[in-house]
Amino acid sequence: MGSLVIFGFGQSARAFVQRVGANYSSIVATVRDGASAQPMRGVEIMDFNETGFDPRLTQAVTDAEVILCSVPPDAEGDPVLEWFGDTIQAAHRLKWLGYLSTIGVYGDHQGGWVDETTPVRGDHERSYRRLMAEQMWQALSRDANLPLHIFRLAGIYGPAQNALLQLQRGTAKRVIKPGQVFNRIHVDDIANILAASIMKPRPMAIYNVTDDCPCPPQDVVTFAAELMGIAPPAEVPFEQANFSQMAQSFYAQNKRVSNRLIHEELGVKLLYPTYREGLQALQAAYRVPSAPK
């Protein structure tokens, strides 16, 4: 039984704790505002934001055997490294360090395949920040001989965020951009992949964390509507979609991402190899009703 520290207690980190929490005698997770955070049994929530952090966090990081960072970089750089880089370097019990990045660092490949050996580039501001953060974590780890593992995540879905809920809320869009494909990944599969890496560490490893099925995004919405027994939203040409700047940046990157390494090296068998299994399980588990007519 060791100690686990998580920077950024979002949906992926919560799924991770549900998967491995019983293995640790101490679990500390950071949020921006502890007063409004959703508690989880066995997890000590501590504040960490741009104004400072809970003073107990320094000792927790120093004593940690496993550290997971899911905090995104900002315009100034990586906030975790800024505040805790030296402390992480001095974490004398550290056996595994994980950083959650994004497949966005590969840029646009016009629908072509990429894997962990594909050169990275920052096509947009968000992906550029991630790329810079990856490089900062790698530099820190080389200098201090830290057991860093980078996980490049595809589009995340799960109980808190999925096409079924979007249809139910009336926010789902069936946007058509010819040739566009995306990968995605269920939060429970993220948790299993991280757990597999902890059991089989390879310092400085990089893994693509995606499903087996790159496909057009409108196919996911159509399938979710079929599960709910409703008509899918009308098709909208990409040029007329009126997307936010963030959504436009997603659609500006078109690629198929290989997940061969998580299968062959970590021995992972995905719970939800495609969006179909994932959405079916979510509907069954949470009894998502039909959307309003």
Model description:
It is a single chain. With 293 residues, this protein is α/β, with parallel strands linked by helices. The protein has a domain at 2-159 and 184-211 and 255-272: Rossmann fold, CATH 3.40.50. The protein has ten helices and 14 strands. It has helices at 11-20, 56-63, 79-89, 125-144, 163-169, 187-199, 217-228, 245-251, 260-264, 275-286; strands at 2-7, 24-31, 44-49, 52-53, 66-69, 96-102, 113-114, 148-153, 155-157, 174-176, 184-186, 205-209, 235-237, 256-257. It has an eight-stranded mixed sheet with strand order 4-3-2-1-5-6-8-12, sandwiched between helices. A two-stranded parallel ribbon has the order 7-14. The protein has a two-stranded parallel ribbon with strand order 9-11. Strand 3 and strand 4 form a beta hairpin. The model has no long low-confidence stretch (mean pLDDT 94).
| Cα shape | globular
The percent range for strand residues is 15-25%
Rg value: 19 Å
Number of strands: 14
Q: According to CATH, what is the class of the domain at 2-159 and 184-211 and 255-272?
A: Alpha Beta
Task: Name the assembly state.
Answer: single chain
CATH architecture designation of the domain at 2-159 and 184-211 and 255-272: 3-Layer(aba) Sandwich
Question: Mean of the pLDDT scores?
Answer: 94
CATH level-four homologous superfamily name of the domain at 2-159 and 184-211 and 255-272: NAD(P)-binding Rossmann-like Domain
The CATH topology of the domain at 2-159 and 184-211 and 255-272 turns out to be Rossmann fold
